[in-house]
Design brief:
Elements: E1 5-12, E2 18-26, H1 29-37, E3 44-49, E4 52-57
Antiparallel strand pairs: 1-2, 1-3, 3-4
């Protein structure tokens, strides 16, 4: 039976403050990284499992608003 792992994807504002958290349940770190990377729209995402940072995904350098 495969073990599932619980991750948290923290949304980080430009000042470095956490303003949101998305819980992820994935089979492994690579699947969690893929899921977390898809969450990057405007703000940086940090992916954590327990007390270990797995990855960090930067926000686009510039967001164009119409």
């Amino acid at each position: 039976m495969p073990s599932i792992k619980h991750y948290r994807a923290f949304q980080i504002d430009p000042d470095g403050h956490v303003f949101g958290c998305i819980n992820l349940v994935c089979d492994n770190d690579e699947e969690a990284k893929s899921e977390a990377a898809s969450l990057v729209l405007v703000h940086r995402i940090e992916l954590w499992r327990l007390d270990q940072r797995i990855a960090q995904f930067e926000s686009p350098a510039r967001v164009v608003r119409q």
